[in-house]
Amino acid sequence: MAALRLDRLHSRLLEPLDLLIEAGALLFLSGASGSGKSQLLRAIADLDPHTGEVWLGDTPRSRMPPALWRRRVGLLPAETCWWAEEVGAHLPLMEHASQHPLSLGSNTRASPPAGQPIGRVLKHLAAFTRRSRPRQSATGTAHEPEPASATPSQIIDWLARIGFEPDVLGWSIARLSSGERQRLALVRLLAQMPTALLLDEPTANLDPGNGARVESLVTHYRQQQQVAILWVSHDPLQRARLGGRALAIRNARLEPVA
Amino acid sequence: MTLIILSPFDLALAAILVLLLAGVSWRLHLGVERRLLIAAARSTIQLVLVGLILKILFAQTSLPLIALMALVMLAVAGYEVMQRQTRRYRGVWGYGIGTLSMFLSAFTVTLLALTVIIGVEPWYQPQYLIPLLGMLLGNTMSGIAIALDSLTRQAWDARGVIEARLLAGQTWDQAITSVRRDALRSGLIPIINAMATAGLVSLPGMMTGQILAGSPPMEAAKYQLLIMFLIASGTGLGSMAAVWIGSRRLFDERQRLRLDRLAAANQSA
Fold it and tell me: What's the CATH number for A4-209+226-256?
């Protein structure tokens, strides 16, 4: 629960800008391609060199370790990349599992060797949910060394909201379509429990049904966690559906959309 | 068995073979005769010069002169590492990373070998120091060049993945860990292969030289083993230093991936 505030942020292609997004508020950003929308999001997430400061609540970015900042201010890029072979390996699910080698080890040994990922995953999940649940959500203090991750049951709930069964966790990344990757990337991002969200056209490659699912998951998370959201979108209907402020990039500046 | 001294006439006979090869290349339009002859001439001049310089060095055993020679060797090796990079680091780093890593690895390992293992008196006796350092520099040079090239190339290709890992809240060294591991592995594979097949296909160069010069084969084998172990550890040490410094240089103080610190692809490398 914290506002996201840009303070003379000078990203590539844009004039230095001040901007405040209150906790729980939604701000839509549009602009011609190449006008610097993605560059702005990258600058806020601190991926490219630039000048200016960003505040998350009372904490300036420069006072936070970069890794913690990027966890808190979650950027969903237009193109998603994956580093492990299976979907589940990208989620805190597996970190929990590695902390409890007993449950993981016994389950993998007990499960059939191949072809039954569903059973294996469900057994994992049963083991996880039996455990006492970790802290439910990230609180906004910067002193906390490692912010809380989502619980396995939250992740399963989110997966269901965008149309996936839990067995997707055992799927290989190579098998996924680009739309599936895009939807799963949102769950991957939420699983790090960000306090602010930067979404770069999260529904661009999705059919209307899945687009609506993504919209409703983001809305659910926003209402539950009161996160500030900067959403790049070209779809006026989407803006109308979800409400919120809308700005557009014109001549390297942000201007209100009529 | 004593060393049979080669006369200029003997060498001229071998040189005729190279001339013949150049003739064949010209006749078959292979287009390498010019480069072949230049390379042959270069090696003749360079080796004769080195022979002369070493003759002077061996006669004097003067530490400043030997240090100068070692520095020249290091400087040339550093340049060679830089030349072999597809994407060089901009600025002094392009030359500095490879050279520093070679200095750290080849020089310390040579020093260790001279003082602790072989026990030469004085430790800088050029007859031991120069060939040892040369072998170590030459081999760490290849290892470091391959490791660094693999690091920068893969980091360039895996930009999306590295940034995705950063966005997931990983630190810079977690985000580049798999790239770094691959780079290190590719730097070490040549020397591991060389050790694994040593003596099976061909005798290593140094052992061949010692046997031709009249050493007993077992003594030659022992020296070759020593050199191989030194080279392996030196290459490992040097590649690790280069990959560590190089990967750190790919990120700035805010742990952003800074591929702009690499120059555009160099097609000739």
Answer: 3.40.50.300
